[in-house]
Amino acid sequence: MLINESKNHYFYLHKWCILTKGHVRSTITDFSRERIKLIPNDLYDLIIKYNGNKVSKLLTDASNDEDRTVISEYFTFLYDEEFIVLTENEEKEFNVDINTEFDFPQIVNNAIIDYNNKSTYSINNTIYQLNQLGCQSLHLRFYTIFNSIQLDTILSSIKNTTIRDVSLFVKYIDDNFVNEIKNLIIEKFMRISQVIIHHYPINKEKETIENKHFVYSSAPIDSCNYCGVINPIFFDINKITYLTGQNHNTCLYKKIAIDVKGNIKNCPSMKKTFGNIKKTTLSEALMNEEFSKLWNIKKADINICKDCEFRLVCTDCRAYIGNDIYAKPKKCDYDPYTATWKNS
């Protein structure tokens, strides 16, 4: 058995394999490989207790053969999944905690621009202001039809700005339009990492072409009301999300948004506005003390979410919550106390 062969070794959980204990089960999230595994709470407790010890100590402390069998199965799982490393000698550096004092240096790190055929504000001016604020990431969402020529003009305004990553949201016209968009993005706009094509006529799997993701949604999405859905397909398993979530809100921290009417908000789905982009600059809106009110609400602060095993990878929503700013998102169907999804 593997555990017997390794009993004279020390074992350590890999640095970026983070344990999260939920109410009825736990997870190991491997942020280096961007994957997550469900585990029993008993295994969580075992790792917490014995991490950094000799493997033999696990066997010595087991009270009977049945416990030793379970421990052996757990150990094999951890080793096969490469969650742990074995060393002949004690290596104290493996027990050093990750420094979670993380922050974005920019005034605004990410933004959302919503636009439809009734919008009258200037996208170019908005992007210019985002560039002045050092914005790094942009969600550009079009709810009505914009042809490839219009999109080319708009996307060209992002060149020579601080914006490094763009997610584009466009409405399906026909297959020719889809091909034009693909060619445009692949050949000309390297900063676009994802294109979501909504109103697509059939269900179609996501495509990845030259590291760009093309997502096809048949949902008739016509406004920002689709936002706020909590679902495993939206889990964000990366180090930046993890580090941000230790001290800040994973959705709203250093985010600014402009809705289809040009209103400046924390998120287009929120009711509170901080002026309109036609008359108020983004910098002026950010000076309002209320603007950053929700920035530091962590998952660990939110009722029910704080007991969920997925809280480290779940991006939050404060738009659809009711009157309690610490309430669980309304569009989350997961119950951590029964470990079930209502609609599954």
Gist of the model:
With 344 residues, this protein is of the alpha/beta class.
Fraction of helical residues: 10-25%
Taken as a percent bin, the fraction of beta residues is: 15-25%
Distance between the termini: 38 Å
Order of strands in the sheet with most strands: 10-11-9-8-7-6-12-13
Succession of helices and strands: HEEEEHHHEEHEHEHEEEHEEHEE
User: Which structural class do the helices and strands define?
Assistant: alpha/beta
- Rg calculated over all Cα atoms: 23 Å
Question: Per the principal axes of the C-alpha atoms, what is the gross shape?
Answer: elongated
In DSSP terms, counting alpha (H) and pi (I) runs of 4 or more, how many helices? 9
Instruction: State mean pLDDT (0 to 100 scale).
Output: 94
Largest sheet: 8 strands, mixed
Count of extended strands: 15
Q: Which ranges are low-confidence, i.e. pLDDT below 50, for 5 or more consecutive residues?
A: none
